[in-house]
Amino acid sequence: MAVSCFLSSSLKPRLLLKGDEQWRSCFAPNIRPFHLRLSSNTRVQASTADSRAIEIPNQWYNLIADLPVKPPPYLNPKTFEPVKPEDLWPLFPDELIRQEVSNERFIDIPDEVIDVYGLWRPTPLIRAKRLEKLLDTPARIYYKYEGVSPAGSHKPNTAVPQVWYNAKEGVKNVVTETGAGQWGSSLAFACSLFGLNCEVWQVRASYDQKPYRKLMMQTWGAKVHPSPSTVTEAGRMLLEKDPSSPGSLGIAISEAVEVAAGNPDTKYCLGSVLNHVLMHQTVIGEECIKQMEAIGETPDVIIGCTGGGSNFGGLAFPFIREKMSGAMSPIIRAVEPAACPSLTKGVFAYDYGDTAGMTPLMKMHTLGHDFIPDPIHAGGLRYHGMAPLISHVHELGYMETLAIAQNECFEGALKFARTEGLIPAPEPAHAIAATIREALRCRETGESKVLLMAMCGHGHFDLPAYDKYLNGGLVDLSFSQDKIDLSLANIPQRI
């Protein structure tokens, strides 16, 4: 098969044959290519020899270092004193604890992690020209697509380093929770590479709705339980109260933390919320900044979905750095489900990260750790709280928020699939719906804004949800204020 390699400034094609010794001669040695979709809809490969070239980032960015006001500390749930490193030792390896509390601006990515990243990174930045045409908008819509990873989402960006650090410190077993199954799949994938045992508690609603995510985890060697389960005391207590509980991420976290805390050879891995997790995801934004520079664009609006916050933070945090420096001034917008609106309807207060109250207290936007959201199809967005760092950034005024019901999200997802060809997961469908809203506003005002969207994963294992929508069976579930008030009444009261 013949390919054209574009390296010269004139972009004249040089024809190479696959298998020929010169197949890779158009790339600088040891430089990984990236894909960029140009306005001609032609996909090209470029290296650092070309002005469009980028490499996989070799450092993670820590937003805390640049914030004018540092985020509130985590608190020990027993003493209400700031958490000390030794408080976290039962759950995390030393290096991840160091990263969690670090004030360093950049942290080097280990070579072994970059090597695995090379399976899918850098990820594509794609202009959604066909969607623009459908919407008849003057806006230019770009999306950073993380669905090219082995697990089909952005989650391996942190699963790989978390497992690598655990393996380096001699840990044999890791446990976790998962909502939609994307995080559990990613951790199982990473464990298969580094030889660790993996055990996952999957929220019951998603466990039943998404059997192929469970099979994906099992294929990579993980053991998967529906949560709440009979395996843990936390799970058994919940099942006694409600044998038909659909579960929640807070419950699943309680189960995984219980197992990690009770077994010295086992550590806990979290797919969102914590500082080190969001920091690992900044490879998304760092790549995207360089990709947009290469095509001469600057985003006016940046949009991403939020559940725990890792995908949104991964794209937004490097851009917030640029915004604080005065290099650009985009509006940064987080979108959440109307049925679990922690940012738009929650309170900013200290609360537990899990239902059983086993985790440190974190100051975050929360609906209350007892809140169990309705089983909407965006399983990855069904968390009662929001990442403390994103909550803090929101309080500082660097971002705005929006909640959208799931029918509008699936309507947008269908428009996207039928123009761009990619079937989105229900989670990024929220970002798509918000982007469509903004693009239609641009049609009304005539503004040719640059819209940048986080497309954090594909929906290949979410087709039953699409089936339900296409057949008119998807119901818009909104939050119950009485339900939230009851849950908020149980958050720890602290002066």
UniProtKB/TrEMBL annotation:
- GO molecular function list: tryptophan synthase activity
User: Which co-factor is required?
Assistant: pyridoxal 5'-phosphate
Q: Does the keyword Membrane apply?
A: no
Which superkingdom does the taxonomy of this entry point to?
A: Eukaryota
SUPFAM superfamilies attached to this UniProt entry: Tryptophan synthase beta subunit-like PLP-dependent enzymes (SSF53686)
Give every Tryptophan synthase beta chain-like PALP domain span: 119-456
Entry-linked CDD domains = Trp-synth_B
Show the Pfam families listed in the entry: PALP (PF00291)
What's the EC number here?
4.2.1.20
- Pathway of action: Amino-acid biosynthesis; L-tryptophan biosynthesis; L-tryptophan from chorismate: step 5/5
Q: Which InterPro entries is this protein grouped with?
A: Trp_synth_b-like, Trp_synth_b_CS, Trp_synth_beta, Trp_synth_beta/beta-like, TrpB-like_PALP, TrpB-like_PALP_sf
> What reaction(s) does this enzyme catalyze?
(1S,2R)-1-C-(indol-3-yl)glycerol 3-phosphate + L-serine = D-glyceraldehyde 3-phosphate + L-tryptophan + H2O
Per UniProt, the keywords (alphabetical) are: Amino-acid biosynthesis, Aromatic amino acid biosynthesis, Lyase, Pyridoxal phosphate, Tryptophan biosynthesis
Q: Does the keyword Lyase apply?
A: yes
Give the UniProt family note.
Belongs to the TrpB family.
Q: What is this protein for, i.e. what is its function?
A: The beta subunit is responsible for the synthesis of L-tryptophan from indole and L-serine.
How does the annotation summarize its subunit structure? Tetramer of two alpha and two beta chains.
The protein, known as: tryptophan synthase
